[in-house]
Amino acid sequence: MAHYKAADSKREQFRRYLEKSGVLDTLTKVLVALYEEPEKPNSALDFLKHHLGASAPENPEIEALRLEVAEMKEKYEAVLEENKKLKTKLALYEPPQDEKHGE
């Protein structure tokens, strides 16, 4: 009988831990959202994964990295455009390939 009470006590501690950390509330909200979804998704698991990931508080490091990636993409696009313009400009001053071989 003592073994049963120990297991029950561990379960209760774990339940309180989940409740205190907000896990139960978050899971309940996501499951309610799935229940209220008019057109059920093909994959309930994907729905849960998507909504759990979206409901997590945004880490400031992640947001900073997203901004950095966006800036790098802009710089990359600008460098590609500059490269294209410089190649066009260079083509005006370089002799065609046929003339180089004739010299």
TrEMBL record:
Task: Report the main location listed first in the record.
Answer: nucleus
Per its record, how is this protein called by name? c-Myc-binding protein
Give the UniProt keywords, A-Z. Answer: Coiled coil, Nucleus
User: Which sequence ranges form a coiled-coil region, renumbered to this chain?
Assistant: 62-89
Question: Can you name the source organism?
Answer: Otus sunia
| Subcellular location, record wording | Nucleus
Q: What family does the entry list?
A: Belongs to the AMY1 family.
Question: Does this UniProt record's set of keywords contain Ribonucleoprotein?
Answer: no
Return the InterPro entries for the record: AMY1
Q: Name one GO molecular function term.
A: transcription coactivator activity
One GO cellular component assignment for this chain's record is: nucleus
